[in-house]
Amino acid sequence: MSHESVAEHVRRALCVVLEKDDLGAVDASTMLFEELQLDSTSVIELLMVLEDSLGLDIDPDELEPEVFETFGSLTDYAAAHSSSAVFPAAS
């Protein structure tokens, strides 16, 4: 799966978790907590959505806070740990 495709899955997952139809202008440097208002509870939900949609195999021992700094860092992590994409079609 391409990095661009993974980024789209991450964008959709963030929309689901943050209950937004659109995130607006998001790029690799967009701060997840500061700009998108992600919080600790939504991180858990986000991980579950990404596990399901990308087949992520998340190892809690290697999951560092830096993964959630920016859209780019989360996308990079997801791309490196995804096995498949099964994200449901947008409704």
Fold and architecture overview:
By secondary structure, the protein is mostly helical. The chain has one domain: Non-ribosomal Peptide Synthetase Peptidyl Carrier Protein, Chain A (Orthogonal Bundle). It contains 3 helices and no strands. The chain is globular, with a radius of gyration of 12 Å. It holds the Pfam family PP-binding.
Query: What's the CATH first level?
Result: Mainly Alpha
How much of the sequence lies in strands comes to under 5%
CATH superfamily: ACP-like
Radius of gyration, in angstroms, nearest whole number: 12 Å
- Kindly state the number of beta strands: 0
CATH architecture: Orthogonal Bundle
**Separation of the first and last Cα atoms:** 22 Å
User: Structural class of the secondary elements?
Assistant: mainly alpha
Tally of domains: 1
Q: SSE order in H/E notation?
A: HHH
Mean pLDDT: 87
**CATH fold name:** Non-ribosomal Peptide Synthetase Peptidyl Carrier Protein, Chain A
Overall outline: globular
Helix content: 40-55%
Give the SSE map.
Blueprint: H1 3-18, H2 40-54, H3 71-81
Helix pairs in contact: 1-2, 1-3
Protein name: Acyl carrier protein
InterPro entries: ACP-like_sf (IPR036736), PP-bd_ACP (IPR009081)
Domain Carrier: 4-82
Offer a concise description of the structure:
With 91 residues, the protein is mainly alpha-helical.
What attributes characterize this protein structure?
about 90 residues; mainly alpha; Non-ribosomal Peptide Synthetase Peptidyl Carrier Protein, Chain A; globular; disordered C terminus; Acyl carrier protein; PP-bd_ACP
